[in-house]
UniProtKB/TrEMBL annotation:
<dbReference type="InterPro" id="IPR018060">
    <property type="entry name" value="HTH_AraC"/>
</dbReference>
<feature type="domain" description="HTH araC/xylS-type">
    <location>
        <begin position="229"/>
        <end position="327"/>
    </location>
</feature>
<dbReference type="GO" id="GO:0043565">
    <property type="term" value="F:sequence-specific DNA binding"/>
</dbReference>
<keyword id="KW-0804">Transcription</keyword>
<keyword id="KW-0805">Transcription regulation</keyword>
<dbReference type="Pfam" id="PF01965">
    <property type="entry name" value="DJ-1_PfpI"/>
</dbReference>
<dbReference type="InterPro" id="IPR052158">
    <property type="entry name" value="INH-QAR"/>
</dbReference>
<protein>
    <submittedName>
        <fullName>AraC family transcriptional regulator with amidase-like domain</fullName>
    </submittedName>
</protein>
<dbReference type="InterPro" id="IPR009057">
    <property type="entry name" value="Homeodomain-like_sf"/>
</dbReference>
<dbReference type="GO" id="GO:0003700">
    <property type="term" value="F:DNA-binding transcription factor activity"/>
</dbReference>
<dbReference type="Pfam" id="PF12833">
    <property type="entry name" value="HTH_18"/>
</dbReference>
<dbReference type="InterPro" id="IPR029062">
    <property type="entry name" value="Class_I_gatase-like"/>
</dbReference>
<dbReference type="InterPro" id="IPR002818">
    <property type="entry name" value="DJ-1/PfpI"/>
</dbReference>
Length: 335
């Protein structure tokens, strides 16, 4: 069942990334061509009121001087409180809180029944207002540890693209913000409207998988002077071979139990988990940089067979190896 779009307020804060403010305007600012019926009434709400300039950043950094962009608010915080939907683009500072007046306005909007939506690090703003306590929330994967550390009452999930509680929704970074905007349009006005906006923005109307497929996978580094360093190098050079935890322990000259203790103490993980992570990383490298068939990628990364590789990719990244390659290496695979 669709709902009328109503009024939609975009919260404008100093130092936000200009592209995320623009993203919300692009998605909700005007209806797609030939759209029948109502559309959103857009309000650009600034802390200092209508007509006041808001400095924005040209990039995603959360430190240093503001960028060269400046927008003028069309409305103030009172208009945000009375809106049906409030969109909060990325915060300008993930280490500090917005002004108290802003947080109070968000709490008041939620109390009167508004739907609150954060894009990327905008979840920090909702969390500072106490509106994410006890909820699952997400943000850009780079900021997820900071969000979890600053707001322990929030269940941070760095893998998903967006959350969709009926009254509070959060998204990961940039493209996931578009995903969430399209999700809202789909809920409010139906699939046809969402698809039309997606075509106008030249993006898919829905993406599969989660953030894990976009995260970097650095190798854990042991403490300086640790004997594990040589063992890890040895294992990395043999990922395509049938080495297991027993083989790593034998190379280190210790029992499996001792090896597990050392991995936990120095790397914060288990040998088996470390080995799987490195093999998946190798598979990702091969999918991104070669046209090798999926079966050969599985062999060369030590994951054995194509079905095994697919199972691991589905579980870890929420996407198939073929789908991953399609995004990162569109050249045709070898036959």
């Amino acid at each position: 069942m669709t709902r009328l779009p109503g009024t939609l307020a975009v919260l404008m804060l100093d130092q936000q990334a200009a592209i995320e403010v623009a993203l919300a305007c692009q998605a909700f600012g005007s209806p797609p061509r030939n759209h029948p019926g109502d559309w959103y009434e857009l309000r650009m709400c600034g802390e200092r009121g209508a007509g006041e300039p808001v400095p924005l950043r040209s990039g995603f950094d959360h430190f240093g001087p503001a960028g060269p962009f400046e927008l003028r608010a069309t409305h103030g915080l009172d208009d945000l409180v009375s809106a049906d939907t409030v969109v909060v683009p990325g915060s300008g500072d993930v280490h500090g809180d917005p002004p108290a007046l802003v947080l109070a306005a968000l709490r008041a909007a939620h109390a009167r029944g508004a739907r609150l939506v954060s894009l990327c690090s905008g979840s920090f703003v909702l969390a500072a207002a106490g509106l994410l306590d006890g909820r699952t929330a997400t943000c850009h994967w780079e900021h997820a540890p900071v969000l979890a550390g600053r707001f322990p009452a929030v269940r941070v999930d760095a893998n998903i693209l967006y959350t969709h509680d009926p009254d509070v929704l959060t998204s990961a970074g940039l493209m996931a913000g578009i995903d969430l905007c399209l999700h809202l349009i789909r809920e409010d006005l139906g699939t046809a409207a969402a698809n039309a906006v997606a075509r106008r923005m030249i993006v898919p109307p829905h993406r599969s998988g989660g953030q894990a497929q976009y995260m970097e996978s650095p190798m854990s580094v042991p403490h300086t002077g640790s004997a594990l360093g040589e063992v890890l190098d040895w294992a990395m050079a043999r990922l395509d071979q049938p080495i297991g935890v027993g083989g790593i322990a034998a190379r280190a000259g210790v029992s499996v139990r001792t090896l597990i203790r050392r991995f936990q103490a120095e790397l914060g993980t288990t040998p088996s988990r470390w080995l799987l992570t490195q093999r998946l990383g190798r598979a990702r490298e091969l999918l991104e940089s070669t046209g090798l068939p999926v079966g050969l990628v599985a062999e060369r990364s030590g994951l054995g067979t194509a079905p095994n590789l697919r199972a691991h990719f589905a579980r870890e990244f929420g996407v198939s190896p073929t789908g991953y390659r399609r995004d990162y290496n569109p050249a045709p695979a070898l036959r």
